[in-house]
Amino acid sequence: MRLKRWESPRREGRNNKGRGGAARKRQLKKQQQMLRKKLKENPPNNNQKDIIKGEEQNLFLFFMMNYQHSKIVVHQVKKLIQNKLIM
Asked: Rounded to whole angstroms, how far apart are CA atoms 67 and 80?
């Protein structure tokens, strides 16, 4: 029994030129080429120093907010204690 054309294990890449998908392959190749070109023209400015600096600022703000919040909580607790002692 002979194998059908689509059952052939050697079909992939052999004698299959121009039989569908070639245009899509060219499109994808061109798209990748354009993306590489664009990336070379405008390199992303992901400097580690900028990232680290941003993280440090975020941590500073985080701790400052927590500090302010803890001061408010302590103040409220003191008020509650005073109110209970007075009553």
From this structure: 20
